[in-house]
TrEMBL record:
A biological process term (GO) from this entry: proteolysis
Enzyme class: hydrolase
Record flagged with keyword Glycosyltransferase: no
EC number(s) recorded for this UniProt protein: 3.4.-.-
Domain Peptidase M28: 125-359
Species in which this protein is naturally found: Neurospora tetraspora
Name this protein carries in UniProt: Peptide hydrolase
This protein's UniProt keywords: Acyltransferase, Hydrolase, Metal-binding, Protease, Signal, Transferase, Zinc
Region (Disordered): 370-408
Length: 408
């Protein structure tokens, strides 16, 4: 494993060397897409995979299996991503099965933000927020929930490790430019990533407003009610969510994820474009009948009010923009004992890892590119990498780029 960071480092160095400043949102170039590191096959082995295998056990809230999986996540970030801040958000609740007994629900938050925003206190960085639930359903007995949501959790671990290679460079450059010092502000580059592994998504007895989403309800409530100091850029942690990308029920072959929300269709289209470009470039290994994301061309009038109840709901109700990555129809193994490692389609799992990673890198590139500061991005190089590295950008470029690429 020790060779991996070095490899990532080299690959991202390649991306950065190819970079020139841009004025506006730019998709990753073909060269950049190809350079985004894909998953190591062995990470997703269902018996021995360093990322996936330890999650493929029953992990019901408050049980030893769940504690093991929590340790797996924390150990991974502690060992491989020491720059990421780890925090827990705990709550307890009774469930329809627990009588008077309080069951613990423990959300895990892994956050990486620019050093200059961190130094200046909380509430400055906008955060691309990638989410999956890690609890498993209490029944049927022995249920492992491979698609629900062990595989999405493993995918997010891969994403974190891969984007770190990119963020490290971008943040080092920001520090070198003196961002955050002596009033040097650049809100367009105050962008970080957080990964939420949520607890208690599953109902214990039957899905109702109170028997489901235990972790998400508690976290969204706490975040909305924890104000930042008066001069912070964001009012509270909930407002820091730039986009809430929820992965759920992923890992079966031939998924079809619709675009659920008109307000975030711009993000869906970006993800769908990443998929179709990667497929055209031969960077994906699955051979689905249809694209994973088939609705890039969905018309405004075709967005209805129908959506799937899931962890995004309490966040969305409080104003967070949501991209819900859940297939319709659900995998045929859904909530059955067959939702186990053997029923995963691993090429599909690894392709999700590739697509979400590339989307994340592109999203962060867009944040850097908006201010044209050469933190990364855009088209293939024309020998202007020196200018990019030195950040030779004018104010005019900064204004021209602001706000592009976010929003419909
Ligand atoms: Zn479920």
């Amino acid at each position: 494993m020790s060779s991996i960071p070095t490899l990532l480092h080299l690959l991202f160095t390649t991306i950065l060397l190819l970079a020139i400043p841009t004025l506006a949102y730019q998709p990753l170039s073909d060269t950049q897409l190809k350079a985004v590191p894909g998953p190591i096959e062995s990470d997703f082995d269902i018996k021995t995979g360093a990322l996936l295998a330890p999650i493929l056990i029953p992990r019901v809230p408050g049980t030893p299996g769940q504690a093991k999986v929590q340790k797996h996540f924390v150990d991974f970030f502690t060992r491989e991503l020491p720059e990421w801040e780890i925090s827990w958000q705990n709550s307890t609740a009774t469930t329809p099965l627990s009588g008077n007994k309080q069951i613990p629900f423990q959300n895990l938050i892994f956050r990486r933000e620019p050093p200059w925003t961190k130094e200046r206190g909380p509430g400055r960085a906008a955060l691309l927020t990638l989410v999956a639930h890690y609890d498993s359903k209490i029944s049927p007995e022995g249920f492992i929930g491979a698609t629900d949501s062990a595989a999405p959790c493993a995918v997010l671990m891969h994403v974190a490790r891969t984007v770190e290679g990119y963020l490290k460079k971008v943040y080092e450059q920001g520090v070198a430019e003196g961002l955050g010092k002596e009033g040097r502000e650049d809100p367009g580059r105050e962008m970080g990533v957080q990964i939420l592994l949520l607890d208690g998504e599953e109902a214990f007895k039957e899905w109702t407003d109170t028997d489901s989403l235990y972790g998400a309800r508690s976290l969204s409530y706490e975040w909305e009610n924890t104000p930042y100091p008066a001069l912070s850029r964001f009012k509270n942690p909930l407002r820091q969510i730039d986009l809430f990308v929820l992965l759920d029920l992923l890992g079966s072959a031939d998924p079809g994820v619709p675009s659920y929300f008109q307000t975030t269709h711009w993000a869906y289209k970006n993800m769908a474009t990443v998929e179709s470009r990667m497929r055209a470039l031969g960077l994906l290994e699955s051979k689905p009948k249809n694209p994973f994301l088939p609705e890039a061309g969905k018309l405004n009038e075709h967005f209805g009010r129908v959506y799937v109840g899931d962890d995004h709901q309490p966040f969305m109700a409080k104003g967070a923009p949501v991209l819900h990555m859940i297939p319709t129809p659900f995998p045929h193994v859904w909530h059955k004992i067959e939702d186990d490692g053997e029923h995963l389609d691993l090429p599909t799992v690894r392709d999700w890892a590739r697509i979400v990673t590339a989307f994340t890198v592109e999203y962060l590139e867009a944040a850097g590119g908006e201010v044209g500061a050469g933190a990364g991005t855009g088209k293939e190089g024309k020998g202007e990498d020196t200018a990019a590295k030195q950040g030779t950008t004018t104010d005019g470029e900064e204004k021209a780029g602001a706000g592009v690429g976010k929003g419909p």
